[in-house]
Amino acid sequence: xxxxxxxxPEMSVQEAETVTLSxxxxxxxxxxxxxxxxxxxxRQMILVIRQEAYKQQNATENRFSVNFQKxxxxxxxxxxxxxxxxxAMYFCAYRSVPFQGGSEKxxxxxxxxxxxxx
Amino acid sequence: xxxxxxxxxxxxxxxxxxxxxxxxxTWNHNNMxxxxxxxxxxxxxxxxxxxxxxxxxxxxxxxYSVSRSNTEDxxxxxxxxxxxxTSVYFCASSEGMNTEAFFGQGTRLTVV
Lengths: 118, 112
Known about the structure:
The structure holds 2 protein chains of 2 kinds. By secondary structure, chain A is an all-beta fold. Chain A has strands at 3-5, 10-14, 19-21, 24-26, 32-39, 46-52, 60-61, 64-69, 74-79, 88-96, 106-108, 112-117. In chain A, strand 8 (64-69) and strand 9 form a beta hairpin. The relative contact order of chain A is 0.33. In chain B, a hairpin with a 7-residue loop joins strand 9 (87-94) and strand 10 (102-103). Chain A binds chain B through residues 6, 9, 33, 35, 42-45, 47, 50, 91, 95, 97-99, 104-111, and chain B through 31, 33, 35, 40-45, 48, 50, 58, 88, 90, 92, 94, 97, 100-101, 103, 105-106.
């Protein structure tokens, strides 16, 4: 079974600075998807960024980018020019590829609480 | 716009009572999931369904059941509520490997 580990329960960053959230995972599958979700105090789960394992290029969405190291099974999230609205709980998640016989369910890490200081 | 809605948003119930949490999606997605979120545990999968009449157990399924009689709905039933089931519950749906999962707003359940 796949597992996802977020080793930083809490992180803080100054407004306008850059912060990196860590995520490692364990799997025997060769193809899969990785996600970062943001959960603000409203509780809504918001997809931040997605990475397909077969793509070597790291995904980027505006101020959010990932460092995907497939051999190391590492998937970190970098937030540049942090804003007060970035304060939230961040979850790393793994999903198998269905056509390889995998399940479509998401496996989540325990989350990292990000505080942004003005 | 298509959406996924959960009801109620908040509920307080007594130990031993049967409780049903509703989840309704208008995406016409075949895949639906129920997760519970607890501090220090992230989101853990309770049950999931890949289509009508299909249901599967997740990692924390004890004490919970689901049924899928149509595409739109996957109600989650707590047969006999326990204090350990106090949590925030999320429903999600997805379709195909190239689409994201969409989440409901969550239901905060308190068992007293």
